[in-house]
Amino acid sequence: MQNKGLVKLFAVLFGLVSIYQLSFTFKANQIEKTAQEVAINKIPESEPDYRAKRSIEEANYLQSIATDTVFNIGIAKFTYNDVKEKAMNLGLDLKGGINVILQVSVKDILKGLANNTKNPVFNKALNDAETLQKNSQNTYLEDFFIAFDKIKGDTKLASPDIFYTKALDGEIEGNMSDDEVKKVISTKIDESIVSAFEVLRKRIDEFGVTSPNIQRLGSSGRILVELPGVKDIERATSLLQSTAQLEFWDAYKGELFFEFLAQANEVLKETAEVEKDTLDTEPQDEENATESTIDALLGEAATDSTAVKTVEPLISLIRGYGYQGGPVIARFEIKDKEKVLNYLNSPKVRALLPAEMRYAKFAFGKPEKDSEIVDLYALVGNRDNIPQLSGAVVTDARNDFSQTNKPTVSMQMNAKGAKIWEEMTGKAYAQGSQIAIVLDNVVYSAPGVTTGPISGGSSEISGNFTLNEAVDLANVLRAGKLPASADIIQSEVVGPSLGQEAIDSGSMSFMIALVLVLVWMVLYYGKAGGFADVAMILNILLIFGILSGLGAVLTLPGIAGIVLTIGMSVDANVIIFERIREEIAKGKGQKEAIQDGFSNALSSIIDANITTGLTALILFIFGTGPIKGFATTLLIGIGTSLFTAIFITRLLVDWYVNKGGKLEFSTPLTKNLFRNLSIEFLKKRKIAYIISGAFILVSLGSLFTNSLDQGVDFVGGRTYQVRFPQDVSASEITATLVGAFGSADAKTFGDANQLKITTKYKVNESGSEVDEAIRKTLYTTLQPHLEGQSYDDFINESEGKSVGLMKYYKVSPTIADDIKQASFWAILGSLIVVFLYILLRFKKWQFSLGAVAAVFHDVLIVLGVFSLTYKFMPFSMEIDQAFIAAILTVIGYSLNDTVIVFDRIREYVNEHTTWNFDKIVDVSLSSTLGRTLNTSLTTLVVLLAIFTFGGDSIRGFMFALIVGIVVGTYSSLFIATPLMYDTIKRGEDKKKVKE
């Protein structure tokens, strides 16, 4: 092997970098464990509400060391924040994350549909609906309709100043009844909430969170978002709540308002003095009402102690003025923003504005980092309060850097926006004024135009951004604006959905399986197997190191990708060693056999990995959620497997041989195993066709009649938040609930005595009677853990409740229809690409047909097995996001197995030109049988160990993989190759007939 020195250098560097990256994960875990111990030692269980206090204490401890140096590697020192930033992220299923419930403002949507009407009946109904919501189980829209009907008089919803607008023209007519309009508005509200749902999902995808969970909760306008592995909660919640209402306004010059501020101050001072005199003369029992009036105007109570402060109500708040010719009027403290806007927008103060400025819009800027001061701007407004240009014209946005290397956001507009932008910038250039770029009513920047009108629609936002802020702003602009504000009404830290016990047992079983594989390689290949083990361990180290370095989130589907990668890593070494054994059997010397063995194996290994890699690449580009998580780890694993198998194993083998060592690549027990086999596979193909045909027919019959046990991810369900008087085990509760509901999942929600329970039980039934029956079943099942609490107390929604049912809501499917469609097209696209690649490599479409047909065969049978057995299996076989990853693993394994056989057939066709095709196929299958069984058995050992010793929650997932590996091995021998053979022979026979 050439360039050994370079390979050694790369191996050492990759290994050191991986260890470096993973060291932060180990250090972060160590620090967090210390924080838990500190909290436990400080807060005994005897204290009331000790769990919450411990959580606070733990958070305080971590906060206290956030900027302290906690990790010193000699050449660099790292704070806890640095360590946490670089540590590996685990998904919701493995570690948990943050759980957020957002309330999309239906009020905002209604205002938008009514074109922000000033109709008093409409606006009073909006406010009345908010009051009704405090003690109502209705949605906001239902309460709005109730409130409107109560006060409408002669006013109709189809009035031109309510919903009979240009935007709704064609859907709402002026002669429609209120009931007819209500149906249209209900549909529009639903569409807007779906739009908000999609915008949020796109933002989360842009944010870089792998395998998030986002669900719509019933029809209430509430959206559940679970973000795994998110470290910066404040950043995440800001991203979710931002409406991304981007606007471009002409800005006034600040000095035009200096005199106005002084006049406003005088008016406010007079008003304050009048209110104070009134306060002094009012009877004592009306004092509260008077204080409320002053509070509304001044933002604080006007008492004697604050009399000095109200002498100059506005001027006293100013902390500086803008520069001459600039857009800033004055500077204020951030805490006074709301008070200043209340002053400036009060009718008496606005009456002071000149006629040409009467529609001026006051807005504050984005404060600099760590600053308490913020700038005030005046924007050129209009009667309708509509900006000259909105963010709807933005077609693309990217984070960039300015000439001074500060983060900015570059934008590109459509043709209409570009024309208006050119007009605005031309006007600003001529007047020497500025254009304010406003996002969610905050002025991010107000640049002047110094080079003339800007054509082409390019623009830039600057504004003292951090890099993360620039990235997030570009993301939300690309994803689109929310149709209404989305407020966080609940946020919690959630535990892993798999349950900690399942994770611990799964990790242990994985280690056991890995040890068994390592031992098997040594038992089968002797010392050479030991070298393969070293390469495999390095491979795993590199995979986790790269995942950590990329900031990827490791989830259960990702682990499926790693399991497949380990199988492929073993497979590559097995292929190499089997080829070396063949060369030794031909009588070649050790060095020559090793040289030829590696060379001959390279083509098979490359082809097998490229086909799987192409599949993973297509899935990564077009897939979402679990598919993308699976594809990420698989792509990384393919690269590291190739490197370790081809280079590291070779390096170790050459090193040992060159120093005089002797390698047999076998042991006394395995020396002649699978040697000189001569199995006539093709003669058995008709039996195989009959068996497979029967299985496929049964599978299809079951799928059409019995269907699949679709989980909450696909069909939705009901979620209950239950708090217990003591800590409980999520996995034990899950097992208990499955017995009662047939399907249930419980995970820790906040403290260890609180669970979030989700079930699809009676998901297609609705009504108060069904809800009551499910609650009673839930109570009966959980009663042993509730310490005698009665059913009434369990469901009672009283304030201060500490035990029982805390919240209940319906959830929509996690996997929306568009995700299902995207997943389908991603898988289909990957198979088409694989078909074309195999056609390119093997020059015959029959090879492509055999490989793809085998994949469909394997997937159908796995689905059929699940459809046939889910009703009586002792573990859950629900179809969820993890099952998708299992199917993808089966596809990858099936392709890998088939291509290895095809590669040997191609080799023998070129090498044995006198053999007939039947013999070539049979000999190829026989000669690769050792490799096929060896790889399949080692992969099955890993899966069976995890299936046996892992938790109940992952058994269905492991079962799918086990069935898939068995069927995939069978199909490569008895389906893919025979199909290829039959189609080739049929083509040759047709040629003979024509001749």
Radius of gyration: 34 Å
Question: Spans with pLDDT under 50 lasting ≥5 residues?
Answer: 281-310, 990-995
Could you tell me the strand content as a percent range?
5-15%
Major β-sheet annotation: 4 strands, antiparallel
State the end-to-end CA separation.
50 Å
Which percent bin holds the helix content? Answer: 55-70%
Principal-axis shape equals globular
Q: How many DSSP H or I helices? A: 30
- Order of strands side by side in the largest beta sheet? 5-6-4-18
| Number of beta-strand segments | 23
- Mean residue pLDDT: 78
Which oligomeric state applies? single chain
Derived structural class: alpha+beta
Describe this structure in words.
With 995 residues, this protein is an alpha+beta fold. It is 57% helix and 13% strand. It has 30 helices and 23 strands. Strands 5-6-4-18 form a four-stranded antiparallel sheet, with helices on one face. It has a four-stranded antiparallel sheet with strand order 12-7-15-16. A hairpin with a 4-residue loop joins strand 5 and strand 6. Helix 1 crosses helix 2 (50-64). The model is unreliable at 281-310 and 990-995 (pLDDT under 50).
